[in-house]
Amino acid sequence: MPKPATVLRRRRVELPAERPDQGVDRVEPAGGGEGAPYDIRAEIGRIHPKAAPVEGEAVVVKQVPNAFLDTDLAGRVDAAGNKDVVIAGFMTHMCVAFTAQGAFLRGNRPTVVADACATRPLRTAVAEVSAEQVHHSALATIEDLYGVVVPSAASLS
User: Is the peptide bond before 94 cis (omega within 30 degrees of 0)?
Assistant: First the structure.
């Protein structure tokens, strides 16, 4: 399971270097309920300064895990003439998976870069599920129908 710093480096440096002509749109949550993992007002949901948008980077603010729903992301992708969409980020089981599904349902071809994604452990009513298990389960779901999962940015070429 990659560490968040590794995910950030791959997202900022390796992915754009592999596909410099494609442009990079950044998607951020608008927030969740107070104390939720997506509450951008709390430390747990706040974007870390090292992951903050860089100057000139387009930012799409979303309200739900699917970054295509009720945002202008679809218009940006279409305006760039892209059918292929490369997805990286966190959380793998939530925003990455739902955005891959959203891309697929609108006719795009999503590719998820596995080592440029991360998630957290979850608890169900019957078990504790490790972050690694959650991560791989989400990737398996994506790969089963919605898109392609590649191990690393180097696999994109």
Answer: no
SS3 154: helix
Q: How far apart are CA 54 and CA 77, in angstroms?
A: 20
* β partners of residue 117: 89
For residue range 57-84, list pLDDT tens digits in order.
788 888 888 999 999 999 999 998 889 9
pTM of the model: 0.77
Q: CA–CA separation, 40 vs 28, rounded Å?
A: 10
CA gyration radius, the chain? 15
CATH architecture for segment(s) 4-156: 3-Layer(aba) Sandwich (3.40)
- Supply the pLDDT for residue 87: 93
Q: Which of 46-50, 64-68, 81-85, 144-148 has the lowest mean pLDDT?
A: 46-50
Domain boundaries, the chain: 4-156
